[in-house]
Amino acid sequence: MDILYSRGKSSASEVREAMPNAPGYSAVRAMLRVLEEKGHIKHDVDGVKYVFSPTVPRDKAKRSAVKHLLDTFFNESPEQVVAALLDVSATRMTREELDRMAEMIEKAKKEGR
Fold this sequence. Notes:
2 domains, 113 residues, alpha+beta, Arc Repressor Mutant, subunit A, 62% helix
């Protein structure tokens, strides 16, 4: 999906070429088929090849993925997500990033979320 979001559209072979440690062509085609069946992407025909593109805006897909992660791994607890994020990323986060996160939390408190 990241490749399709960054490029806008690509054929299966173009997606495969852009992947680090890419699986075989058949595996890429299978992944694209599953993504299309789930409604995340669509294809258009360009000559003899299919050209795939996202059907959902990146921000909406991002929110959906985070909600799925929250529901699946963190018992719907944003606190557990933040704790895991800080545990994994705290040494790589800058003071500015931590300050921005703190500002987001304060804003959410004021808005009564």
